Amino acid sequence: MITQKMKKALRKQCKHHSYGKPDWIAARLLLFNRISTCAESGKVGVFISGRDCDGMFFERSYTINASVMGYVKFKRDYIYWSDGTQNFYLQKPSEL
After folding, report:
1. What is the extent of the structural domain holding 76?
2. Number of domains, the chain
3. Which terminus of the chain is more solvent-facing, meaning fewer CB atoms within 10 Å of its CB: N or C?
């Protein structure tokens, strides 16, 4: 559930003009809700599928800390080193 207190706290953190838009805040809050729904013992599962630079299909799964910034940093670092398309799915760690 997204509370007014959470929205106010996020708006305070968003000092840069482009990040202060309501769409960005709403997306982060939706991500927070999804992570809290999938969290088990402070962890969340990330299932990744995609294609590498040779066109080969792959599927991988990881368990990371159940936080918005943990997921954002994981996804940013993973995409930085990727060669092809990537699809990210949040799941419970027991479902991986």
Report:
1. 4-95
2. 1
3. N
